[in-house]
Design brief:
By secondary structure, the chain is mainly α. It is built from 7 helices and no strands.
């Protein structure tokens, strides 16, 4: 037997740690001003890998956040359809598992951003309104401010709140 047939197995804690590390790496790439096409590919692959590893030791919130990350990366790359798909997956997970607080608000933020990328200004506004309504239930002020800042960064959407 050669090394190619060996399987690498992580326990639940290792899967979650790897998912988190990949998540953070994606943010580093997203904030990079001079990303190359190779960086974009790495960012997208890391987002999906993060979601995959969180799915190997699933907690409903990390599954939702993994979908949000995929949606955000696709939006950053200007790819509306997969951004909408992953945003909807996040909302579905939040609805199915009763997830509220900032995760629910960010599900609407993801769908607002994806709608904006698709050129659907009315959809972007409607989802932003839902995100703002959900923001009222965010327990931590810092989390609410993070959401509001992200809503302000949605492309082509003037602030209306």
């Amino acid at each position: 037997m050669d090394d190619r047939s060996k399987t690498f197995v992580l326990d639940a804690e290792g899967e979650r740690a790897l998912g988190k590390s990949l998540f953070n790496g994606v943010w580093t790439l997203m904030e990079q001003d001079d990303r190359t096409p190779d960086d974009d590919d790495r960012m997208l692959n890391m987002a999906h890998a993060s979601r995959y590893h969180w799915g190997q030791a699933p907690l409903p919130a990390t599954l939702a956040r993994g979908e949000w990350l995929c949606s955000r990366v696709y939006a950053v790359l200007g790819r509306a359809e997969p951004a909408q798909y992953h945003g909807q997956r996040m909302l579905d997970i939040c609805s199915r598992d009763g997830i509220r607080d900032w995760d629910l608000a960010f599900a609407y933020e993801a769908l607002a951003r994806a709608s904006a990328v698709a050129g659907d200004a009315a959809g972007a506004r409607a989802f932003t309104e839902q995100a703002l309504a959900a923001a009222e239930d965010i327990a931590e002020d810092d989390d609410r401010e993070l959401l509001l800042g992200d809503l302000e960064s949605i492309p082509g959407q003037p602030r209306f709140w």
